[in-house]
Amino acid sequence: MRVETDGALKPLQPLRTAMTAESERSTDRLETDRAADPENDRPGASEPERDNQSVAARVVVSYPADLSDWGRFQVEKPSFRAFLRKTRDSARVGDVWEEFVGVGCCGNTLDVPLRVERVDGGARIDDSTTIEYAVREACGIEGSWRVQSKGGPSRA
């Protein structure tokens, strides 16, 4: 029961949809955003770039060359790849995802800028999408265990 503004109790309306573990992720907002994006109509845009409904078979994501061994270990874990598949609805070449990859021994966080380098197939990411990595130019990320030390990351 719920209370209306006139103080009378009225029955709740029945729930029309239920989300379950098997429910598909909604891409309505994504489709609206992408349809309004002039980048999608640029000359030379390939069909997979325009196709939001098709699933990406493979997404190649790059991380900076100066990412520490520990940072690389974190992003290349199967669990982190699964995290990306669950948290990203779509990928487009040039997208940059700032991702938290872990907390060091003293509580400092490491956020890594991942950049989408290639998308094979459609734009939509699901559980069947393969996530692969490439290394790109360094960006001064300075992520290592020295981030937490008095010496600081620039002196590692």
From TrEMBL:
All residue ranges annotated as the DUF7968 domain in the record: 52-155
Comp. bias (Basic and acidic residues): 22-52
A matching Pfam family: DUF7968
Disordered, as annotated region: 1-55
Source species, domain of life: Archaea
Protein name listed in UniProt: DUF7968 domain-containing protein
Organism listed in the record: Salinadaptatus halalkaliphilus
